[in-house]
Design a protein that fits this description.
With 131 residues, this protein is mainly beta. The chain has 1 helix and 8 strands, in the order H-E-E-E-E-E-E-E-E.
Length: 131
């Protein structure tokens, strides 16, 4: 068995994002646009890892930035064995009909070392607004 290297497994955490506009909770006349997102985190590596914390950067079309830091996701710190995945849903409220999110999860490898799993930028947009 080869020794584990926390940096080497960083790229083995796959993150997939699906987004949706929540029309029934949004109030465009009050500059309130609600978006839901579902994240699937998959351990594509050979070593288990635990999601310890999250850091989100949420930017609206006016350039307003919100940062969110916290332990785990949706009250959990999922432990992912090789081949396992964890899915959760959450939401964001923007003052504009278009925005973007990006961030990272801080993961803890089996050897106790921490590494970051980046979340690539993704767009939040009212349907039909962007082509």
């Amino acid at each position: 068995m080869q020794p584990m290297n926390s940096q080497a497994i960083e790229s083995e955490i796959g993150i997939k994002v699906d987004t949706a506009y929540v029309d029934e909770q949004s109030r465009p006349d009050d500059d309130r646009y609600v978006f839901a997102y579902t994240i699937t985190i998959r351990n594509n590596g050979e070593h288990a890892a635990t999601l310890r914390s999250r850091h989100w950067i949420i930017t609206d079309a006016n350039g307003k930035v919100q940062e969110v830091h916290g332990d785990g996701v949706v009250g959990e710190q999922p432990f992912l064995k090789p081949g396992e995945e964890f899915r959760y849903s959450s939401g964001a409220i923007l003052e504009t009909p278009v925005g973007a999110m990006q961030g990272m999860y801080t993961m803890e490898a089996e050897d106790g070392g921490n590494f970051d799993a980046p979340i690539a930028p993704f767009t939040l947009a009212v349907p039909g607004l962007l082509q």
